[in-house]
Amino acid sequence: MLEIRSVHKTFHPGTPNEVRALAGVDLTITEGSFTIIIGTNGSGKSTLLSATAGSFLVDSGELRLAGKDVTSWPEHRRARLIGRVFQNPFSGTAPNLSIAENLSLAARRGLGRGLGLALRRSRRSEMREAVRQLNMGLEDRLDNAIGSLSGGQRQALTLLMATWRKPSLLLLDEHTAALDPKSADQVISLTEQLVARDRLTTLMVTHSMQQAAALGDRIVMMHRGRVLHDLGGAEKKRVRPEELLERFEELRRSELLDESAAAMLERNYV
Could you read off the pLDDT of 41-56 as tens digits, one per residue? Predict the structure, then answer.
């Protein structure tokens, strides 16, 4: 479903603020896979999702989605194939529009716009039933502005919007990080339900080792813009949060050694 081949991306090249965010990423995601991406801060996790979504064009490499070469496609064109949920519960929705109007926009992603036709009676009934399944009591509040809802309610609706048209690829960028524990658990439960129900090919970035160990069928660990570990199959099923934390600790020790060696070389030879 998704092929990423030797993708590179450097921000602010040739300046003091140069950042090599992606340094030759190779990754193949099979259809129906639920892949968890973890890594230290600055490892390239969210950058990889943004590159896939088309938030910017990569410097080199190739991205293929659903058999199509999308490397040069702008973000709005890729949005026909991709659903995305951001970390901030207030991203991805129009706060001044109602729940029903937001869902109408999601239902017509990639199609012609026009709320009047989209909000016909049959569509509204379909929306009510879908929202009812969130178990948040929002099915009787379809005319409420989505900006008036709590973060957890809004993130649940954003997830519903992102999956409404059963995208070829679902991108979840730390989509529970800004929520309180109870709301985060609700959104994770909804995520599992929607992904399993529609067999959605999913890439999910998280800082939670509990989520990484419990969810999905594959874990990809990134570091310095590259894929460092790739755990799937039986290895993924056996992995525990403590083991993932130990891998992070190994990275931290390695980073400290690298910094110490660089400082020694600078003192002795520079």
Answer: 888 999 999 999 999 9
Tokens of 15: 């300046």
* pLDDT tens string 64-94: 999 999 999 999 899 889 999 998 878 878 8
Element (H, E) at 24: strand 19-29
Q: Which of 9, 28, 27, 29 is nearest to 19 (CA)?
A: 9
The dihedral over CA atoms of 103, 107, 111, 113, expressed in degrees to the nearest 10, equals: -30
Token pair 């594959």 is found at 218
Contact 167, 82 (CB under 8 A): yes
Tally the C-alpha atoms within 13 A of residue 155's C-alpha that lie toward its C-beta. Answer: 27
- Alpha carbon dihedral 40, 178, 204, 169, in 10-degree steps, equals -140
pLDDT classification of 135: cutoffs 50, 70, 90: confident
Strand partners, 171: 84, 203
Q: What per-residue string of b and e applies to 228-263 under the rule 16 or more CB within 10 Å gives b?
A: eeebeeeebeebeeeebeebeeebeeeeeeeeeeee
CA distance 44 to 29: 17
Bigger pLDDT: 187 or 112? 187
What are the two backbone dihedrals, phi and then psi, of residue 17, each rounded to the nearest 5 degrees? -95, 15
Q: What's the order of all strands across the beta sheet hosting 60-65? A: 19-29, 2-11, 60-65, 68-69
| CA dist., res. 127 & res. 143, Å (int) | 12
